[in-house]
């Protein structure tokens, strides 16, 4: 990358917050009236070659500690994706759940003059200020999974769909129960104080309501095997008859399945959440109550790496007509069953 282009791109990110605000004003004044048929013109040349080597890119990457299978997969996938590009240097900070340490890591990236930062913050609100500082320094920030409190602290944000997970799980259960309006449906949530858990539960409740069902029994765990087993044991004791269970998290689902086996219960079917390999293997084998899981992609940081590279090199997403990388990308929450499990196994994470 030449000194001139490097300076221009840094100036571009430093002005990103102002540009975003202006774009919102312009969008509000733009007519939504469609053009007459035949007047719109397709671009002359489709965007291609995004994976071809380009200008050298240095990306700083920081994420929480891998104390959970999904989080471990996040970092592993990001590192593997970065290794595919000879024009990309990844500077990986030590994974940490210490907010102050993560802030100092981002400050170090700023001091080192990296081109972009891909950041999965331990606490989005707490990392907002330092991410804003990076943007003001002309460094493209890609926010992953846990949102900053100010969207202008990032050029692009990559998210899973927590509400959509609940909707997908609830819709699948409705379909499987086939209009049985007196069915007993249970829910084993994650940590109730987290917005992500609240979003998942809200989506689940809304989807069930659409087919005349409600959550008859609900307990919360803590995303751990031990917590899942304890919560499930309490649930099963309180509910002598169930038709379906949705467990929010496949890591804690290892404990949930252990509790179900210990209780000798099999009158219901179970849906998992997140998309672990062991759960997908069980779905494929079809020899437990576990019949499906809902994906919360562990590819988010890997997607962030690809997007950061495109941003720095001034490229767009080749499958879009738009000439800029989008501001927000929310990944889908599909249901994985025995019929389609082979499609999703390659990106499943180890619990």
TrEMBL record:
It is found in: Cell envelope. The keyword Ligase does not apply. GO terms for molecular function: carbohydrate binding. It comes from the Bacteria. One of its GO terms (cellular component) is cell envelope. Belongs to the bacterial solute-binding protein 2 family. Residues 1-16 form the signal peptide. InterPro entries: Peripla_BP_I, SBP_2_dom, TAT_signal. Keywords: Signal. Residues 59-315 form the Periplasmic binding protein domain. This is Sugar ABC transporter substrate-binding protein.
